[in-house]
Structure formats: C-alpha cells, structure tokens
Amino acid sequence: MTERVVREILEQVADGKLQVSAAMQRLKHLPFEELDFARIDHHRWLRRGLPEVVLGEHKSAEQIAGIGRRIVAAGSNLIVTRLSRDKASVVKRKLKRFVYYDVAELGAIITQPIEPRGHGAVMVISAGTSDIKVAEEAALCAEFFGNRVERLYDVGVAGLHRLTSSLELIERASVLIVVAGMEGALPSVVAGLLDKPLIAVPTSAGYGTSFGGLTALLGMLNSCAGGVTVVNIDNGFGAAFAATLINRVGLDRQTTA
Known about the structure:
Strand content: 15-25%
Strand order of the largest sheet: 8-7-9-10-11
Structural class: alpha/beta
Shape: globular
CATH architecture of the largest domain: 3-Layer(aba) Sandwich
Radius of gyration: 20 Å
Largest sheet: 5 strands, parallel
CATH class of the largest domain: Alpha Beta
C-alpha cells in the first residue's frame, strides 16, 4: 500500500467517487495482513518510503508466492532477494509477471511506476567479478527503490589503475556502494580519494582465511579512511536501502511513488 494509492483513495472519497465503506475495504489490511505463516507489513512504504522486501532464503516457494500475491494485491512492488533459480521457477508459475534476475538471485513484480528520486546517481562498484552477484543485488534494489544507478565492476586493488582511470566518472555519483571480498580493501581506497557517502559491502568471496567474508567485514570496520559505513556480509539489499535514504535526504516525501 503506497502513498500514491492511499492518496488516490482519499481523493476519490473527497470527490464523492468512492464510498467510505469501499475505501475502508481497500484500507483494511493496514498496517499489516496476517497469513498463517507471515504478517505482511503493508504500512512500511508509508512509514519509510520503501516497500517491504521479502527474503527468499529459508522460505518455501509456496510461502514466497503466498506473500508475494498479497503484496501485489495491495498495490505494492514485490521484491524477493536470496531467491534460488529452482524456487524462482516455481514462483514464476504461481505469480504472473514475476521476473527473475539470475545473477543477483532476485525476483520482482513491479506494479507501481518507479519514479526516479534522489540528488544524483548511486554508483555500485565491485572489487572483482566474484563480487558481482552481491553488487547486482545492490544495484537492482537501488533501481527498484527509485535511484538512477551506475555500475563499475572489477576495479579491485590488485590492479588499482582500473579504479583510478574511472575517478572522474565516480566523482559524478552522489552515493557509492563499494562491494569487495578477500581482504576487503577497496572501500578504504575509494573513501580516501573521494568526498562521497560510501557504504561498504563485504562479500563471502575468498580463500580459506577470508572466513566466509569475516576478514573483509573486519577490514572494512577497521578502515583508516573516515566515513565508511559498513553493512553485513553479502548484504547488497541493506546497502541499497541505506544508499537510497542518503540520496533522498531533504527531498519532499510527497513525491514518493
């Protein structure tokens, strides 16, 4: 239930085009709708300007489809992260218009037009090709949240000239999401060169002593470059959410889709 949908309902009531009882029927699932296995937060878009996003991991395809069906019926965009290809194929049979993005392991149904908002572009930077899965989760979520997104992949510190050759491009972005595994050094380098808000995303890519991303996480938390904000391991969604809020600071919420 988006701000636009609620506003349209209230305007129809004010204009005499919709009965109060009918409006109440459409609004009755605010603030949440209870299923046997989930409580769907339809009110989140109104509170935060972004919809509830479904974590597909550890949910069955049937549960995902059931939740998704109600989210779409309420007029919100459906976004499902951490969704395996096998589960996605089942969900696609149950939900029309469900689109699966294989690289990011993300699925979506976009029912509300995505209106670009923000002071500028969110740029997603990955250290290596092995980090692109998480980078694409961040990039797609940021796009679905209404940001203009630019991508710069495989520019890690093992070949720093790949990064420095793109500094003019990076400088044009408003917010940076920097994704890196292994030792997680790239966010520190980027933050030391530029004056942009930077959200660092450690990934689980790396050999044994990367400890599934823990080494990158600790390296980013211990960055000697000031102003680096760090999200959890492989959490592209969380980085996109934070980047969106930063990119919207000071903007009028009334324009939220």
